[in-house]
Design brief:
CATH architecture of the largest domain: 2-Layer Sandwich
Radius of gyration: 34 Å
Helix content: 40-55%
Largest sheet: 6 strands, antiparallel
Number of strands: 6
Structural class: alpha+beta
Mean pLDDT: 89
CATH class of the largest domain: Alpha Beta
Distance between the termini: 131 Å
Low-confidence stretches: none
CATH topology of the largest domain: Alpha-D-Glucose-1,6-Bisphosphate, Chain A, domain 4
Number of domains: 2
Length: 286
C-alpha cells in the first residue's frame, strides 16, 4: 500500500510558494556617463574657445592667454570627437545600446568648433610667419599718423637658415615676402592722386575701417581694421603718387598687424582684396 503522504496532490486551491508571488523588480536603466561626457566636452570646447576669444577682445586678459584658451579648447573638442566615436563603435555590439542623442550632439558641436579652429591652423602651416605685407619691398609706405610696432622686425623667419646667414631682418623679411607673396605689387590707376585717395577713403569706411587720416592732396591714407572676436587691430597705409609719365597714379599699400608673429595670411588677403576693389582690374605697375 502506498502511503498517501508520499503522493503529491495538485490541489486547485493550493497556495503558491512565497517565492513565486514576489513582484519582479523593474530593470533600472544605466546612466549614460559617456554620453554626458561627450556632450559636456563638445559644448564646453565651443564655450571655452568663444569666451577665450571674446575675453581677449574685451581686454580681460592678454591675447596670448586667449590663444592658449582657444588651443586647449581645440584639444578638448578633439577628445570629445574621439570618445564619441569609440563609444559609438562599442554601442554597436551592446545588447541594450545607450541613447545616441547626447553623444551625437556633443560630437557635432565639437566638430564645428574643431573645424573652425582647424582652418586657422591650416593657414598657419601654409603661409609665412610674417605680419607685415607691402606692395613695395624696397621702399614700403611709412606710417606717419599711426605708429608702427617697435618689434616689427624682431622675429622674422630665417635667422637660423644657412641660406639667409648674414642678412639683416629687413632683408630676410623681403626675401620671405617675395617668395610667398610675389603677386602683391604696386598698381597703376588711370586717375589723378586726389581722386584715388578719395575713392580709397570711401572704400575703407564701407569696410568698417577706422580712418585715422586721409589726405588726398598728399596722396596718403591711414586706417585700422579690427577683427570680430579677438579684436585684433591691423594698421593700413596707402601711398598714392603720380606716375612717371604724369598719366594716372601709382598705388602702394602696406598692412601690418599690431600683435603676433604670424598674421595667418590676413594682411596679404586684405591688400589683395582692397586693391582689387579700388582698381576694378588690377594692373601691375612698371
Amino acid at each position: 500500500m502506498v502511503n498517501e503522504q508520499e503522493v503529491p496532490h495538485d490541489t486547485p486551491g493550493a497556495q503558491a510558494s512565497p517565492a513565486s508571488t514576489q513582484p519582479v523588480a523593474p530593470v533600472r536603466s544605466k546612466i549614460d556617463y559617456w554620453g554626458y561626457l561627450v556632450l559636456i566636452s563638445g559644448v564646453g570646447a565651443l564655450v571655452w574657445g568663444f569666451v577665450a576669444a571674446v575675453g581677449t577682445g574685451w581686454g580681460l586678459w592678454e591675447y596670448t592667454s586667449g590663444l592658449k584658451g582657444v588651443t586647449w579648447a581645440f584639444f578638448l573638442g578633439l577628445g570629445a570627437i574621439l570618445i564619441g566615436a569609440v563609444q559609438g563603435w562599442r554601442a554597436r555590439k551592446a545588447i541594450t545600446p545607450p541613447p545616441r542623442t547626447r553623444r551625437w550632439v556633443g560630437m557635432l558641436v565639437a566638430l564645428i568648433y574643431v573645424g573652425w579652429v582647424g582652418t586657422f591652423l591650416m593657414a598657419a602651416l601654409t603661409v609665412p610667419a610674417i605680419h607685415d605685407v607691402s606692395t613695395d619691398l624696397a621702399d614700403p609706405p611709412t606710417f606717419q599718423t599711426l605708429v608702427l610696432r617697435t618689434d616689427n622686425l624682431d622675429n622674422i623667419p630665417g635667422a637660423d637658415d644657412d641660406k639667409m646667414r648674414g642678412l639683416t631682418p629687413q632683408q630676410r623679411w623681403a626675401l620671405v615676402h617675395q617668395k610667398d607673396y610675389g603677386d602683391i605689387r604696386s598698381v597703376r590707376i588711370n586717375e589723378p592722386v586726389p581722386m584715388v585717395v578719395a575713392k580709397a577713403e570711401r572704400l575703407a569706411k564701407a569696410r568698417g575701417w577706422d580712418v585715422a587720416v586721409s589726405l588726398p592732396e598728399e596722396g596718403r591714407l591711414e586706417a585700422t581694421e579690427t577683427s570680430a572676436f579677438f579684436r585684433f587691430k591691423d594698421d593700413v597705409v596707402l601711398r598714392v603718387r603720380p606716375s612717371d609719365t604724369g598719366e594716372g597714379s601709382i598705388v602702394d599699400m602696406r598692412s601690418v598687424s599690431r600683435v603676433g608673429t604670424s598674421d595667418l595670411g590676413m594682411n596679404a588677403k586684405r591688400v589683395r582684396s582692397f586693391l582689387a576693389d579700388l582698381t576694378g582690374t588690377v594692373t601691375a605697375a612698371r
